């Protein structure tokens, strides 16, 4: 279990290092996740201990939202003053995400013009 957690954190550290050294506009943890994904894809599977650690982290994921909630409460007055731009950004980004997801699913999902899928044929 400790080796798996160390492997995950080393991937994050590598991502942080790459992000800081290269100046890429990507967060280090995202780069680390890509590194971890690449390693697991090369291995063609997820080792049981990494899966267990990942499941444990996911089951406690809600704790990571506490700092964000505190930040929102501390800046409530600013959010209230800028409510229109914030709500607009949330709505537009949600609609764009749904549209892009639908487009990608249509292109990669094998949909046919009549609404069926290639799996039904």
TrEMBL record:
GO CC terms, sorted: plasma membrane
Pfam families given in the database record: LrgA (PF03788)
Name used for this protein in its record: CidA/LrgA family protein
PANTHER family: HOLIN-LIKE PROTEIN CIDA (PTHR33931:SF2), HOLIN-LIKE PROTEIN CIDA-RELATED (PTHR33931)
UniProt keyword terms in alphabetical order: Cell membrane, Membrane, Transmembrane, Transmembrane helix
Localisation: Cell membrane
Membrane topology of the entry: Multi-pass membrane protein
Main location: membrane
Transmembrane spans: 30-46, 83-106
